[in-house]
């Protein structure tokens, strides 16, 4: 057999072809780099994707030709600074920032359950011993009023057995607490925002000469933001300004108090003053007052002297006594029995001592807060 051999011409052709391939490869790589540098927008990266892509993409079903939309919204990116504090991550359309005390059914269509939306709220802080008083009071308020009973003695179910109306009012029971304790915890302005007026009444009030609808009429007529019914002048009154005056609808100033009690005739207790016994607040005034109620001062003594801060000046034009609708203060010290005998003091005396102590503490807090505020503005504290 002969031996196979390659000619010199054949080897030269192989070398030429290799050089051509190498040159072609180098040219292709160089062209690609130049093309990429010349058109950077053609590079598709995550950073270059549009921010507002469609919220869904179509993915073919494995077993079908139908395209199925899949939600791709990133809910962690919702942030609305104008939403209420704590709700910034919610879409504004779902926010329910206010509530009410309307009773709801457990069945049926919610849009059909409220035959009437009460526009006014009445609260009484009660003990079972004063149930006859409260029965008379509740009957003075129509279905335009939502009624709430705060029970400081823990007795609630017995009211249902005795009074038919009891099943239609709201009962809140916490032992040995005052109405201002309840108010701070259960009557936040956003909870009672549906009500035009809020009544914060004690349990020892005679209402033979009181009509709730007429009272609301007078309050609206005279533009009172904070008010109370006048008191029977034949009975004992702590403050002269609260006594009923004949031949007038309302009054708000010009009274003779005890010597030294009126340093300014246009300020409490000679003007712009109602007691904390049976006050009535507009929605706006209540929003202010709720923030002024101190969390640890439960009796509310001193609030009546500061109410003027919750209305525009002159305050006596917005705070007044309604003379056409008057009540009797019976001075029943019910909460005294809820106290505790200590250091030789009776339960009633212990409660009364705390009332005076809280009055002084509240006054100091208001004064100090005001001084700090004006100090921060570097201006002198206005004279009170």
UniProtKB/TrEMBL annotation:
Key words of the record: Membrane, Transmembrane, Transmembrane helix
Pfam families assigned: DUF707
Bilayer-crossing regions: 21-44
Top-level division of the source organism's lineage: Eukaryota
Alphabetized PANTHER family for the sequence: BNAA09G28270D PROTEIN, OS06G0731900 PROTEIN
Name assigned to this protein: Storage protein
Species per Swiss-Prot/TrEMBL record: Eruca vesicaria subsp. sativa
């Amino acid at each position: 057999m002969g031996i196979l051999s390659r000619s010199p011409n054949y080897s030269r052709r192989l070398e030429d072809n290799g050089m051509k391939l190498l040159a072609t490869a180098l040219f292709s790589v160089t062209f690609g780099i130049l093309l990429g540098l010349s058109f950077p927008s053609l590079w598709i990266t995550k950073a270059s994707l549009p921010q507002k892509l469609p919220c869904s993409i179509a993915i073919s079903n494995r077993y079908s030709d139908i395209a199925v939309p899949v939600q791709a919204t990133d809910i962690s990116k919702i942030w609305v600074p104008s939403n209420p504090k704590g709700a910034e991550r919610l879409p504004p359309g779902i926010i329910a920032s206010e509530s009410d005390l309307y009773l709801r059914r457990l069945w049926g269509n919610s849009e059909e359950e409220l035959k009437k939306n009460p526009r006014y709220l009445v609260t009484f802080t009660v003990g079972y011993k004063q149930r006859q008083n409260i029965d008379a009071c509740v009957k003075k308020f129509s279905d335009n009023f939502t009624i709430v009973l705060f029970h400081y003695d823990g007795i609630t179910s017995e009211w249902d057995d005795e009074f038919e109306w009891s099943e239609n009012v709201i009962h809140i029971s916490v032992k040995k607490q005052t109405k201002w304790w309840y108010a701070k915890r259960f009557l936040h302005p956003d909870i009672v925002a549906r009500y035009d007026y809020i009544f914060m009444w004690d349990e020892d009030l005679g209402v033979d000469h009181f009509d709730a609808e007429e009272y609301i009429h007078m309050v609206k007529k005279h533009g009172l933001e904070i008010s109370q019914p006048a008191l029977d002048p034949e009975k004992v009154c702590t403050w002269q300004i609260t006594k009923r005056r004949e031949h007038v609808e309302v009054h708000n100033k010009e009274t003779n108090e005890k010597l030294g009690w009126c340093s300014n005739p246009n300020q409490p207790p000679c003007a712009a003053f109602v007691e904390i016994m049976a006050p009535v607040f507009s929605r706006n005034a209540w929003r202010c007052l709720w923030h002024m109620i101190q969390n640890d001062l439960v009796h509310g003594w001193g609030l009546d002297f500061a109410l003027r801060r919750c209305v525009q000046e002159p305050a006596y034009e917005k705070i007044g006594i309604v003379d056409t609708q008057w009540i009797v203060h019976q001075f029943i010290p019910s909460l005294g029995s809820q106290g505790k005998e200590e250091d030789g003091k009776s339960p009633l005396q212990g409660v009364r001592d705390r009332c005076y102590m809280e009055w002084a503490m509240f006054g100091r807090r208001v004064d100090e807060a005001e001084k700090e505020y004006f100090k921060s503005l570097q201006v002198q504290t206005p004279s009170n």
